[in-house]
Design a protein that fits this description.
By secondary structure, this protein is of the alpha+beta class. Helices cover about 15% and strands about 30% of the residues.
């Protein structure tokens, strides 16, 4: 294989990897707020997809409200990562889980949000509504 062919393949692979890194994944967004299919805010009730009727399944979503005027939602749990989108004060968000990350104003927790795209939000600026989210 010639050097030119190898360089072309390497360039194409690099461009594909870069495109994949900046394209946010689409989150599963077919939820039922009543929990009737096991996909409600807290996974309560239902025996449908992901639900087992007792509220203790891995598909459980939690709810939070944004407290910052504008909150950057990011590709990783740190302030240096790419901004995927923004949330505004009062927006109700769906939280999949929490993890540790860069400390923001004394709070090292970040929430993985599932509102149309997967994105990380600093927990410092998202108040839980109901139980605290599970660990990722």
């Amino acid at each position: 294989m010639s050097l030119r062919t190898r360089l072309s393949i390497a360039t194409a692979a690099g461009l594909l990897a870069a495109a994949a890194a900046v394209t946010p994944a689409t989150a599963y967004d077919d939820w039922d707020p009543s929990g009737g299919n096991g996909q409600g805010w807290n996974g309560n009730g239902g025996t449908g997809q992901g639900g087992n009727g007792n509220g203790h399944d891995d598909q459980r979503l939690y709810k939070g409200v944004v407290t910052a005027d504008t909150l950057a939602l990011r590709s990783a749990p740190n302030r240096g990562s790419q901004i995927i989108r923004f949330a505004r004060r009062g927006d109700v968000v769906k939280i999949f889980c929490k993890t540790g990350g860069e400390t923001v104003r004394g709070n090292p927790r970040w929430y993985l949000l599932t509102d149309g795209t997967w994105a990380w939000g600093a927990a410092r600026y998202i108040d839980n509504i109901g139980p605290a989210p599970r660990w990722c």
